[in-house]
Design goal:
413 residues; alpha/beta; Rossmann fold; binds zinc ion
Length: 413
């Protein structure tokens, strides 16, 4: 069988980064009926790195329809940390780029309007582009003009043709989620004004590698991005980065500031420094990507050792945050409801359902006080501080927190 081709440069993909085998969709939370029916679909989850452009990517596309039909909706506004992140972003962009009532801010993957509402509050016109109808509806309900459409070269052209040209475009945590990277990035050059600014936020591949964040690998993420790879994709579509900020979100993300190739934005030292840092880390060498799998196995072994000890001691373990990344982790480790009695999540859409693969039941956070676990495993480690503050009361019965990345540790309490 011939190898799959790179989704950016079409070179054959012959080098494995991490093969997680067959896994259910990380966001397919099962209803009791689906659990009873017992026919949960699984799909290959095998990531490879391109030896030509060094884009790390899933080699198999789960159809986007399967993912969006998963009966699950992610509402950004359910995470208070994320809402605050959005508010600060809006304030910083308005100030730096002098946005006002004459400007237009366009967000791609605008979800429930969690970000654009902060621009609206300052009388700056906005347009959200969001493929999921129910989140788009929530955005409209708060006055955020929203188009229900997949963003790509064709839809970008249509928006520009009807006069929607942006001074600022935001695409936060979406670049990794698009199967057709070229068609997606090609859309921006149409909508962005000649001197407009485009910001992409995405988890940085360098953190994934250095901190062994393999649980960020799941079917909805088709690409795992470095500046090295993204810069090549941008330039192929008439765009270039000119500045970068390092963010703490998702365990270490980049906010890349981009513009048209011919626009006047000067390249900053921060961007040059990051390029140099990736070069020092060897992201331009195939051998840098070898050996990642062995480090992932070590993370799993550390967690399984903790589980064994906790079970021997008769401790009850539950999990907090039924996030996608938690499902990759639990399923890779072979964890089931026999190991972890339940998971808590603030999103009502997940409550009363079961985690894909592991079949751990999901309860509302109010159940923490009723179930009184000895250990609360924090699955979304990027929200660790937020969760530990919210659940500080577990100390009342001697409960303690556990994080499993990059090795399993009991924290706090
Ligand atoms: Zn490639």
């Amino acid at each position: 069988m011939s190898p799959p081709l790179c989704r950016f440069c079409r070179a054959p993909l012959t080098r494995t980064f991490l093969d997680l085998g067959e896994q259910p969709l990380a966001n397919s939370y099962l209803t009791p009926e689906q659990l009873a029916a017992g026919d949960e679909p699984v799909f290959p989850l095998h990531t490879r790195v391109c030896d030509r452009c060094f884009l790390v990517q899933a080699d198999h596309d789960v159809p986007a329809e399967a993912i969006f039909d998963a009966g699950y909706a992610y509402f950004s506004s359910f995470s208070s940390g994320w809402v605050e992140h959005a508010r600060r972003y809006a304030g910083a962009m308005i100030e730096r780029f002098g946005l006002g009532p004459e400007s237009l801010v366009v967000e791609v993957a605008s979800n429930d309007g969690y970000l654009l509402k902060h621009f609206l509050a300052r009388d700056i016109p906005v347009l959200g582009i969001e493929p999921t109808a129910n989140t788009a509806e929530a955005a409209r309900a708060i006055g955020v003009r929203t188009e229900v459409v997949f963003f790509n070269a064709e839809t970008g052209q249509k928006l520009a043709a009807r006069g929607d040209r942006a001074d600022l475009m935001a695409a936060n945590n979406v670049l990794a989620h698009v199967p057709d990277l070229n068609a997606f990035v090609a859309g921006f050059q149409h909508v962005l004004k000649p001197q407009g600014v485009l910001t992409f936020e995405f988890p940085h591949l360098l953190n994934l590698i250095e901190k062994v964040q393999f649980d960020t690998i799941y079917h909805e993420h088709y690409s795992y991005l470095s500046l090295l790879a993204v810069e090549q994709v941008l330039r192929a579509h008439g765009l270039r980065p000119f500045d970068v900020e390092l963010l703490a979100t998702h365990g270490g993300s980049l906010r890349l500031f981009c513009c048209h190739l011919g626009s006047g934005h000067d390249e900053t030292d921060a961007l040059r420094d990051l390029r140099a840092r990736e070069a020092v880390a060897g992201l331009h060498k195939p051998e840098t990507y070898d050996g990642f799998a062995a480090r992932v196995e070590a993370v799993r072994d550390s967690f399984l050792a903790f589980l064994r000890t906790a079970k021997d001691d008769g401790k009850a373990i539950s999990a907090y945050g039924a996030a996608a990344k938690g499902n990759t982790f639990l399923n890779y480790c072979g964890t089931t409801a026999a190991d972890i009695v339940c998971a808590y999540d603030a999103n009502p859409a997940k409550q009363g359902r079961y985690l894909p693969g592991s079949h751990i039941p999901v309860f509302a956070p109010s159940a923490v006080g009723e179930t009184r676990p000895d250990y609360v495993l924090i699955l979304p480690w990027n929200l660790k501080d937020e969760i530990m503050t919210q659940l500080a009361f577990i100390a009342d019965w001697g409960g303690r927190f556990v994080v499993a990345s990059p090795e399993t540790k009991v924290v706090g309490g």
